[in-house]
Amino acid sequence: MDLEMERKFRCPHCGERVSMLLDLSEDGSHTYVEDCEVCCKPIQIAFEAAGGELVTFGASA
Ligand SMILES: [Zn+2]
Fold first, then answer.
1. Cα–ligand 1 centroid distance for 59 (angstroms)
2. How far does residue 1's CA lie from ligand 1's centre (Å)?
3. Helix, strand or coil for residue 56?
4. Quick count: other Cβ atoms within 10 Å of Cβ 52?
5. With a threshold of 0.85, does the pTM exceed it?
6. What integer is the mean pLDDT of 27-43?
7. Residues 33, 12, 57, 2: what is their CA dihedral angle, to the nearest 10 degrees?
8. If you measure from the C-alpha of residue 30 to the centroid of ligand 1, how many angstroms do you get, rounded to a whole number?
9. Rounded mean pLDDT of 8-28?
10. Cα 15 from Cα 38, distance rounded (Å)
11. How far, in Å, is the centroid of ligand 1 from the Cα of 51?
């Protein structure tokens, strides 16, 4: 079962529209850091998954 979804958002550093793949196969809260594909600065990603669905999503500098 493929539980990855693409999420588009604006980079908190450069304001450009970027997208990332989220793995929704594990329920609960997940946080990690990924570099922006435009400005290469680290973005803190925090999201919550439940039953393969995205519940909350946040991206901060
Ligand atoms: Zn950026």
1. 11
2. 31
3. strand
4. 13
5. yes
6. 97
7. -60
8. 21
9. 96
10. 9
11. 30
Ligand 1: centre distance to CA 26 (Å): 27
Q: Which residues pair with 23 in a beta bridge?
A: 4
Q: Is the pLDDT of residue 1 over 70?
A: no
Residue 33 Cα to ligand 1 middle (Å) = 13
Q: From the CA of 35, how far away is ligand 1's center (Å)?
A: 8
Q: How far apart are CA 55 and CA 22, in angstroms?
A: 12
Q: Residue 48's beta-bridge partner residues?
A: 29, 56
The DSSP result for 4-49, as a single string, is EEEEEEE-TTT--EEEEEEE-SS-EEEEEEEE-TTT--EEEEEEEE
Cα dist. 47→4, 23 in Å? 13, 10
